[in-house]
Amino acid sequence: MPSITATVVNALKLDLNNFRTVRQVNEIKAIHSMISISPAWFWALTESLLDDGYHLTENIIVLKSGSNGQDLIVKEGNRRVGALKLILGLIKCDQIQLPSHLEKKVADLPAEWKRANSEVPCAVYEAEEFAKVDRIVTLTHATAELAGRDEWNSVARARYSRDKNGKNEPALDLLEKFLVHGRNLTSEQAERWAGEYPLTVLDEMIKKLASRLGVASSRQLADSYPSTVNYRKGLEDILRDIGVEIITFKRIRDTQEDIAHVHYGIPPVPIVGQSAPNSSPSNSSGSVNSGGGNIFNAPKPPLGNALYNVGSASPQSQSTVSPPVTGTATLKPKAVSVVDPKAVMRALKQFQPRGNNRNKVVTLRDEMLKLKLDKHPHAFCFLLRSMFEISAKAFCDDYASKGGPSYTQKGNERKLADILTDICDYLVGTPANQQLKKTLHGARVDLGTHTSILSVTSMNQLIHNPHFSITEHSICVSFGNIFPLLQEMNR
Fold first, then answer.
1. In sequence order, what are the residues at sequence separation of 6 or more whose Cβ sits closer than 8 angstroms to the Cβ of residue 251?
2. Tens digits of residue pLDDT in 449-465
């Protein structure tokens, strides 16, 4: 039986082996990971604690650990304890940035609140009762309130099943390897996907891919990645696009299109009498000859092989995956109109921000990819406006020591339009880089013209003017003009 006792928050240690994510190296990383996986849940709980204090009816489940049993490891209640450590200053807020409204609440907290919430009720179990604690934890995650207990998702369930019950979880093993060795994801994506990822979609996908990649099963596919897996680039692109929810159950179950072959260069399903591919190099670009083996309809053009035609001459604007070949004719990417939302989404899908302080840029891009321009034009523009401002500030920080522009003047933030103009001037340089000058011409004109639909002025009007509106077609045309500047600020 556990002992029920009030325990000071500072004596509690967060579980660095929390099943919600991969093992963390310290408590700061553990809290950062919990925030990345479910920011809404974490900050809602933090605000609830600030407003109402800790509810004494909620016991923290603690397991004694260590050679002398003095370590008190939180097995249930890591979010609550993590939030309290932030609020009480046990982990400095400058190491983990709080939302501004919560930062103010923390600063204004009375001393009485801190005294009343410096201890929390704990059910403390002895080290040898670990099996009982595991059982309690698995039965705890059932509510759906943001400030309540956060239900385990497919990743956490699979990790528990593998680590505690010894079950075979090849999709999870492949995902965790990809987060370490993947060549096409950001550090922010790796952190988030360690705990929040459509794992059931990946599980179904790799069952369909195994034989086509020269292995007998999902298990062998997970074991062979990354060193000996065939068509590594195509596989990693699939893993990334499942993460950003471009690939869903609906798409992989579509019998009219072999998306793995058409969009990612994976060989088609072998017909009877053909052997599975086994000689392709692990760093294959994904270019294949179909040889008549595709059992699906004629291939469609690869997703995102041709970027939105914005005139950029930079390497990022070039296709990196060769289109599949049928017979002797190479299928070129199907062109789309400048007013087609597909052009916008193709450009965003290929957009890979690089550099410091770009994590939120990646998050905004992923959210934009989930929107449909015909249904969410205003939401799309709000995210785009945020992306430009964050990118501009990150760019200024990058080049501050090299004579680059500044986003502040006399301690005040400058207008975004002026900052972007200065960034364009800095990028073009002296003497002028004529090719880049041509590439950025559309962005300079569009962002600086008040009447342009995606100018800084218009995006501000979307927020402040109750009568200003926008349509998907006007977004598409203007987006093609301003997108090159977004690329250049995030190289």
1. 257, 259
2. 877 778 888 888 877 87
